[in-house]
Amino acid sequence: MSTSYSPRPPIWQLIRAVAPLGRETSNAEIKQLLLHEWPDLNQATINAQIAIWTVNRVGRVS
Description:
By secondary structure, the protein is an all-alpha fold. It has a domain at 11-17 and 25-56. It has helices at residues 11-18, 27-37, 43-53. It starts with 10 loop residues before the first helix and ends in a 9-residue tail after the last helix. Pfam families: DUF7669.
């Protein structure tokens, strides 16, 4: 008997999938959406990836 295994995409791809919501989203909302679907995700990694993908983050604008 074989079982099919579908690996979870990298967290950065999961965050990009949230972008088409078509509205502003908070970091907390993004984390909530991701953790609802994949509860085993590391929250520190989610935070780091959100920081990388945030366009208007203070450290990214001058």
